[in-house]
Write a structure and sequence with these properties.
Arc Repressor Mutant, subunit A, 12 strands, 5-stranded parallel beta sheet, 2 domains, 3-stranded antiparallel beta sheet, alpha/beta, 25 helices
């Protein structure tokens, strides 16, 4: 362990860089609460989306890195803001008319449009927890509704009441200037109406420190006095964020780049309440295929369920690890690349020295307990195999895999078995509808006829490198310069795509005779005709 710790103190991997910031926070001594607290936040106003998972996964990576550096115990709280009022009806839920009737109620009082839980907030919380549990995250779920109504925040809320003016001084400059209506109506306290149960955006008319209450006006003009404790009020979200940091002693939290101004205000509020703001890390946003920010209310981009339909959870963790400070498109076409790169890193890990292991994403994905990759065939190759073999299920792919790697089996290579099933799904859903075969030109036809003839005469076995050399030699002999034009022609004519696998490996997997047959079918125009016929 000391060797790992020493190397981790100098590692440039971003989780270790973050962990060292937390360690420096307690260089004078461990926290009095006895542990370092990591937090992630979730707003259950819409269905959980993949960005929510990314925040928990990345925070967990920093937590694990900290545990390599320090013996101080750690905790991770996933906090759901489920007491927020429903401000608009999400566009991707059933029964929107019913939800419209529940506008401004706390999310844990909004009726579940899916009819499976006692509230919309409970439904979304369950979805989040089920998914995080599936990944095996070590976390504690926390509900805003439970924390407010049980009294866990009472002491902090009374401090907010006491320091009301300081918080207003922090917040008012951010509300649009003295002419803004919000400046005249803003209050950090949002009373929960005893009459309607709705979360009200109304001014605070009176504050009674001795009684721990505020006075506000209902829409009909009646003045009402309510305690700030016991769940009778909810804080506006920026004061809420800062109050939570102070009340719980949060040491580390991540947030999206779009929340930088909010985090700065919440940090000031935390300090005003006597707390120490956490170490913060802002990450770039995930974008959909149109370079638009992913929104849980719109439901654009990939959902967590989408990714798991086509790839392993570990490949998703790998995608989340990469360059958090860089905006990334999070759409279906990133999946195959993530799967193959994840397995490449798994294969590299055993032969790496300690410094490179600590910089390898799989160390952070698996917390140092890195498994062996049993993927003897890349995912991208499985996709091409599904294409040319018209595979309807993974058994079809296994017929080719066993010939290429006789020692492989579903039992011994469970990751490959799962990938074969994923590949068939992905091919039929995304690859097949977009394939566009073309006929070869005269030079391409001559080269492909030459390649088919050499494959017919091949008797050296399924040596991928030797077959790759043959493909190279044919391209050079027919004057392709650069050679990538030759490989592009093979992909477009034989696979219906502009990019493809290392072709020697493809031949070894698909079969030498079968590849020769495929070439001859393409030269006869059969692939183009089948594509046009939707076969």
């Amino acid at each position: 362990m000391p060797d790992i710790r020493d190397a981790a103190m100098n590692s440039k991997a971003w989780p270790f860089q973050e962990a060292r910031r937390i360690l420096k926070r307690y260089e004078a001594g461990p926290p009095t609460k006895g542990y370092v607290l990591f937090e992630t936040g979730y707003g259950p106003s819409g269905l959980p989306h993949i960005g929510t998972f990314g925040e928990v996964a990345r925070t967990t990576m920093v937590r694990r890195a900290f545990e390599v550096l320090s013996d101080i115990p750690t905790r991770l709280i996933c906090f759901s803001d489920d007491m927020d009022g429903l401000r608009k009806v999400p566009s991707n839920v059933p029964n929107p008319e019913q939800m419209a009737e529940d506008l401004h109620l706390p999310l844990t009082k909004v009726r579940d449009p899916f009819g499976t839980h006692e509230s919309f907030g409970a439904h979304n919380n369950a979805r989040l927890r089920a998914f995080l549990d599936r990944f095996g995250f070590d976390y504690e779920f926390a509900s805003s509704t439970e924390y407010y109504t049980s009294g866990k925040f009472d002491a902090a809320l009374l401090t907010v009441l006491e320091r009301f003016d300081e918080i207003m001084e922090i917040m008012l400059p951010s509300l649009g200037g003295v002419e803004s209506e919000r400046v005249n109506t803003y209050s950090p306290f949002l009373p929960v109406s005893p009459r309607t149960g709705k979360v009200l955006q109304v001014p605070t008319l009176e504050r009674n420190l001795d009684k721990g209450t505020i006075v506000y006006e209902e829409p009909d003009g009646e003045k009402v006095e309510v305690p700030v404790t016991g769940g009778h009020v909810k804080l506006q979200w920026k004061p809420d964020w800062g109050m939570r940091w102070a009340a719980l002693g949060v040491d580390y939290e991540m947030y999206g780049k779009d929340l930088i101004p909010s985090a700065e205000l919440s940090s000031k509020i935390c300090a005003a309440l006597g707390g120490r703001p956490p170490e913060l890390y802002n990450y770039e946003l995930f974008l959909d295929e149109n370079a638009t920010k992913i929104s849980k209310s719109k439901g654009n981009g990939l959902s967590m369920e989408d990714w798991l339909r086509y790839a392993s959870p570990e490949s998703l963790s790998y995608f989340m690890y990469l360059k958090p400070k860089t905006a990334k498109r999070l759409y279906f076409d990133v999946i195959p690349k993530a799967v193959d790169e994840y397995n490449q890193q798994l294969r590299a890990y055993p032969d790496q020295d300690i410094d490179k292991r600590l910089a390898n994403p799989v160390f952070h994905i698996h917390g140092g307990e890195v498994p062996e990759s049993r993927m003897v065939v890349p995912f991208s190759m499985l996709l091409n195999l599904a294409s040319v073999s018209a595979a309807e299920d993974k058994d079809r792919l296994w017929g080719f895999i066993r010939r290429y790697a006789p020692e492989a089996s579903a039992e011994n290579n469970p990751d490959l078995d799962a990938a074969a099933e994923f590949a068939v799904r992905y091919f039929h859903d995304f690859v097949a509808p977009t394939r566009s075969f073309r006929a070869p030109d005269a030079r391409e036809r001559a080269a492909m006829e030459d390649l088919a003839a050499q494959l017919r005469a091949w008797d050296v076995g399924l040596d991928a490198e030797a077959l790759q050399s043959v493909v190279f030699a044919v391209g050079k002999a027919h004057g392709f310069e650069p050679l990538r034009d030759w490989f592009r022609a093979l992909y477009e004519v034989l696979l219906g795509a502009s990019q493809g696998p290392r072709f020697g490996g493809f031949i070894a997997l698909y079969g030498v005779e079968e590849t020769a047959d495929l070439i001859e079918r393409a030269l006869a125009g059969e692939l183009v005709m089948e594509s046009q016929a939707g076969v």
